[in-house]
Write a structure and sequence with these properties.
Order of helices and strands: HEEEHHEEHHHHHEHEEHHEEHHHHHHE
Number of domains: 2
CATH superfamily of the largest domain: Metalloenzyme, LuxS/M16 peptidase-like
Distance between the termini: 41 Å
Largest sheet: 6 strands, mixed
Helix content: 25-40%
Strand content: 15-25%
Strand order of the largest sheet: 1-2-6-3-5-4
Number of strands: 11
Number of helices: 17
CATH class of the largest domain: Alpha Beta
Radius of gyration: 23 Å
CATH architecture of the largest domain: 2-Layer Sandwich
């Protein structure tokens, strides 16, 4: 599924939203080891301590449909006795196994006085447990030639480890210890708080990231989806060990987790390793709250922000379907046809013909509670009104006649190639499976490309009529200060 959207793409490519190194998505995996690990921790090149024996094996789960356009066997999905969801995919393209831990907690789950706590958790889980001190996680993973990282978004937090297949149990042990046994040392909390403040400064200094954040705030006004991932300075200063531990105990439970194992492994071996690590955590009775549905836009909202850059930045956004709504499928193609490719309509009109913009993109983010389609462009400040007129004009054309058959076919072909590229590695498959299971449906992800192929020009036209309402959208301008 490619409906990650603007904010997700920024998290995955440009923003330092995690710990230490900025090799995103997320953060944490590449932190420089702090001086002085605990004296009682194992050596970095030694395997983690043996875990208790796993419970009796459950019956083998029924397989899911095979991934579309793939020679891979079908993945399996099961629920462990403690409520944890486990997805396993055999994938022998390399000797690397991808281990993903998805937790159903993100920005929308935070209380108003706890903004940024989901992201703060992401930082702290890399900073030691009751068994090993700060820096050990990174050294243990890197010591076997692996790498790790994490990302926090609106509906989820995801931690992942990529290691050689023979280190699968080590990777799962480390992830389980992070989730259930993190120390939340007060000194580390103080250090990571300063790291988060620096991330907030970097994010605000980047106009491409700042405009996306502010578009979300306008479209999702009054809804948790409009809140800042990094919280506020006030909520971060108020975050202490007791509050962060309470947040962890509430949301980091087996019933709220999905573990994905993809690589050259047998399902039986992966199942046993997960049962011996994550399977030891007790069931807590956690019950997820439904995602709050955003209020639909009821008018045109326009905002102008002065910034230090000499280049102006233009943004427009509309409300869109939620992740579980099939009405969103044609919106993916629409975003591509309008401004998602070099040959898209707005690229030809705004860049090639009228030379008003040097960069533009459109994306659709399908969240659990609702969705957003956003268009962003870099333009001359004097031309922003003209850019808005052209965007609305091109939208009106596609609402009237729909896309051409060539546009439909090219958009589908682009998704096919992107999907093939994203799923050729164990890491790419694990990411797609975990995202779908946490925010959407795994079965729908497995057949997503086929679903796009079946969409007609009329269905794409009708989606444009539903989403791109001419009297209900947001416009945001970043203009040079003093203009």
């Amino acid at each position: 599924m490619t409906r990650l959207g603007a904010l997700g793409l920024l998290l995955a490519a440009t923003l330092p939203v995690g710990c230490a190194t900025v090799t995103l998505p997320g953060g944490g995996g590449g932190a420089a080891p702090p001086a002085g690990a605990r004296a009682d921790q194992p050596a970095a090149d030694q395997p983690a301590a043996a875990q208790p024996a796993p419970p009796p094996a459950a019956p083998a789960p029924k397989p899911l449909p095979a991934p579309a356009d793939s020679a891979l066997p079908p993945p399996t999905r099961e629920t462990l006795p403690n409520g944890l969801t486990l997805i396993i995919q055999e994938h022998g393209a390399s000797d690397i196994v991808a281990l993903h831990m998805w937790i159903g907690v993100g920005i929308r789950h935070e209380a108003p006085d706890g903004l940024g706590y989901a992201h703060f958790q992401e930082h702290m889980l890399f900073k030691g447990t009751d068994k090993w001190g700060p820096g050990y996680f990174d050294r243990a993973v890197e010591g076997v030639g692996g790498r790790s990282n994490a990302v926090t978004s609106h509906d989820y937090t995801n931690f992942y480890v990529l290691v050689p297949s023979e280190a699968m149990t080590l990777g799962l042990t480390l992830l389980a210890d992070m989730a259930f046994r993190s120390a939340f040392d007060p000194a580390e909390i103080d250090r990571e708080r300063e790291v988060i403040f620096e991330e907030a400064r970097i994010e605000q200094d980047s106009p491409r990231s700042a405009i996306v954040r502010q578009l979300y705030a306008l479209v999702f006004e009054g809804n948790p989806y409009g809140r800042p991932v990094l919280g506020t300075r006030e909520t971060m200063l108020a975050a202490d060990r007791a509050k962060l531990v309470a947040f962890n105990k509430r949301y980091y439970t087996p019933e709220n987790m999905t573990v994905v194992v993809v690589g050259p492994v047998t399902p039986a071996a992966a199942r046993q390793a997960v049962a011996a690590t994550f399977g030891q955590a007790p069931r807590t009775g956690f019950s997820p709250a439904p995602a709050p549905r955003p209020k639909p836009l009821t008018g045109v909202v326009k905002k102008q922000v002065e910034r230090p850059e000499q280049q102006a930045y233009f943004g427009m956004a509309w409300s869109a379907p939620a992740s579980d709504d099939p009405a969103g499928y044609p919106v993916d193609l629409l975003a591509n046809i309008l401004a998602g490719a070099e040959s898209s309509r707005l690229a030809q009109r705004l860049r090639d013909q009228e030379r008003l913009c040097t960069y533009m993109t459109m994306s659709y983010a399908a969240l659990v509670g609702g969705g957003i389609v956003s268009f962003r462009a870099e333009c001359e400040a004097a031309q922003l009104d003209r850019v808005e007129q052209i965007v609305l004009a091109e939208v009106a054309k596609i609402q009237a006649a729909g896309p051409s058959e060539e546009e439909r076919r090219l958009a589908v072909t682009k998704f096919e190639s992107e999907h093939a590229f994203a799923t050729e590695t164990s890491e790419g498959l694990a990411d797609k499976y975990g995202l779908a299971q946490t925010t959407w449906e795994l079965e729908a992800e497995l057949s997503y490309v086929d679903s796009l192929r079946k969409l007609s020009r009329e269905q794409i036209r009708d989606a444009a009529r539903r989403v791109f309402t001419p009297d209900a959208y947001v416009r945001l301008d970043f203009v040079p200060r003093g203009r």
